[in-house]
């Protein structure tokens, strides 16, 4: 299992009674299949751990899954060139927008049959203890690939976004202004600020500059808002938090790495990683939610 780089969380709006066996049976109906000659993309389930065989792996009251995809990445510039070349050869007026789109569609379909697909995957898990769906995605657009196929597999997916109902720039500005959060979180020297009180306000990014520096203090006094900060959590991980409440660019520190099982059995390592991840995410996201909501 790949380490999660981002944490986008949905909360089930009713208790989760799903078992690993039930989920395995549901996902088995939609395995990843090869991308057909005339298809641009396909989506389906892969073994949860790349070293294993099960579509679902249960660890620490969590059901780990992995959405696979085969996507043909079309070379846009090459298609544009082919359109222009064929227009010249057949004397087609591509200044006419409708004619251009028609020719572009023909050329694109020809490319689709020739381009080899690339395979990728997105890891996720259902936390049965918290009633969460946790997706390794930095945006709702990417996470929606998982939720769409999971909804299709299960028949329904009653989830809502998990985030405090607060203005996060106000909260993060307060952190920077006071140069502290609490004993669990550390404010690192990477900050983004914006002039949200102006229609076309500026953006300032600071890296390697303390939050109590003169430059940052001046912007705060002039009404700038903090829109992104780099944080540490209990010496376990560091991450970047923006106003979407999605921890991104997660880095696992030595204290986390030391707890991982050291073994030549890669599946055992993946299981250890999954167990620790579920534990860490539970405490991190609850503490982060409460801190933001309390502010």
Explained architecture:
This protein has 295 residues and is α+β, with helices and mostly antiparallel strands. Among the domains are: 76-114, no CATH class; 168-294, no CATH class. It is 36% helix and 26% strand. It contains 8 helices and 12 strands. The chain has helices spanning 20-27, 76-89, 97-114, 140-154, 168-178, 214-221, 254-257, 266-294; strands spanning 8-12, 41-46, 57-59, 62-71, 118-127, 132-135, 159-161, 185-194, 203-207, 225-233, 237-242, 248-252. The strands form 2 sheets. Strands 1, 2, 3, 4, 5, 6 and 7 form a 7-stranded antiparallel sheet that branches. A 5-stranded antiparallel sheet has the order 9-8-10-11-12. A hairpin with a 5-residue loop joins strand 11 (237-242) and strand 12 (248-252). It is globular, with a radius of gyration of 23 Å. The chain starts with 7 loop residues before the first strand and ends with a helix.
Question: How is this fold's topology laid out?
Answer:
Layout: E1 8-12, H1 20-27, E2 41-46, E3 57-59, E4 62-71, H2 76-89, H3 97-114, E5 118-127, E6 132-135, H4 140-154, E7 159-161, H5 168-178, E8 185-194, E9 203-207, H6 214-221, E10 225-233, E11 237-242, E12 248-252, H7 254-257, H8 266-294
Antiparallel strand pairs: 1-6, 1-7, 2-4, 3-4, 4-5, 5-6, 8-9, 8-10, 10-11, 11-12
Helix pairs in contact: 2-3
């Amino acid at each position: 299992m790949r380490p999660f780089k981002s944490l986008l969380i949905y909360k089930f709006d009713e208790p989760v009674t799903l078992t690993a066996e039930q989920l395995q049976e549901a996902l088995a109906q939609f395995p990843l299949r090869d991308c057909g000659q005339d298809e641009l993309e396909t989506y389906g389930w892969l073994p949860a751990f790349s070293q294993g065989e099960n579509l679902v792996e249960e660890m620490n009251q969590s059901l780990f899954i992995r959405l696979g995809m085969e996507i043909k990445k079309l070379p846009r510039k090459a298609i544009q060139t082919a359109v222009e070349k064929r227009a010249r050869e057949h004397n087609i007026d591509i200044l006419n927008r409708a004619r251009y789109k028609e020719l572009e569609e023909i050329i694109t379909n020809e490319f689709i049959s020739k381009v080899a697909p690339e395979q990728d995957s997105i890891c996720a898990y259902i936390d049965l203890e918290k009633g969460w769906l946790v997706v390794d995605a930095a945006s709702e657009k990417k996470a929606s690939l998982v939720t769409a196929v999971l909804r299709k597999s299960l028949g329904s997916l009653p989830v809502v976004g998990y985030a405090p109902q607060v203005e996060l720039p106000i909260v993060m500005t307060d952190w920077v202004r006071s140069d502290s959060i609490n004993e669990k979180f550390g404010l690192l020297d990477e900050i983004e600020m914006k002039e949200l009180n102006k229609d076309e306000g500026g953006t300032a990014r600071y890296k390697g500059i303390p939050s109590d520096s003169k430059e940052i203090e001046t912007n705060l006094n002039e009404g700038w808002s903090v829109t992104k900060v780099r944080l540490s959590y209990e010496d376990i991980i560091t991450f970047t938090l923006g106003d979407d409440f999605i921890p991104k660019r997660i880095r696992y520190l030595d204290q986390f790495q030391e707890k991982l099982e050291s073994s030549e059995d890669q599946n055992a390592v993946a299981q250890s990683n999954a167990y620790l991840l579920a534990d860490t995410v539970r405490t991190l996201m609850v503490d982060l939610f409460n801190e933001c909501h309390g502010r």
